[in-house]
Amino acid sequence: MRLVVDLNKCQGYAQCAFLAPDVFTMHGEESLVYNPRVAEDQRQGLARAVAACPVQAITADGLDGAAEPTAESAREASHGS
């Protein structure tokens, strides 16, 4: 999973830092620092942070799971053919 924050959009509301403190950190009142590579076990906090951003400055590739098929979806695809 890869994370991107548009720092031109970011207004420093810090909702992301509250919801995913292992990923986002505020330095000072307006400077956001983040890790662009997010571990799988941080998916839930990251999803909350993305949803909570009031200016929609955060995007995360693979967060919705569409790019990463589950075992169940793979079984359904093989049975549907």
TrEMBL record:
In its keyword annotation, does this UniProt entry include DNA-binding? no
- What are the protein's GO molecular function terms? 3 iron, 4 sulfur cluster binding; electron transfer activity; iron ion binding
Q: State the source organism's domain of life.
A: Bacteria
The coenzyme or cofactor needed here is: [3Fe-4S] cluster
Q: Which UniProt keywords apply?
A: 3Fe-4S, Electron transport, Iron, Iron-sulfur, Metal-binding, Transport
As for what it does, the entry says: Ferredoxins are iron-sulfur proteins that transfer electrons in a wide variety of metabolic reactions.
**Designated name of the protein:** Ferredoxin
Question: Which species is this UniProt entry from?
Answer: Streptomyces pluripotens
Q: Cite the source lineage.
A: Bacteria, Bacillati, Actinomycetota, Actinomycetes, Kitasatosporales
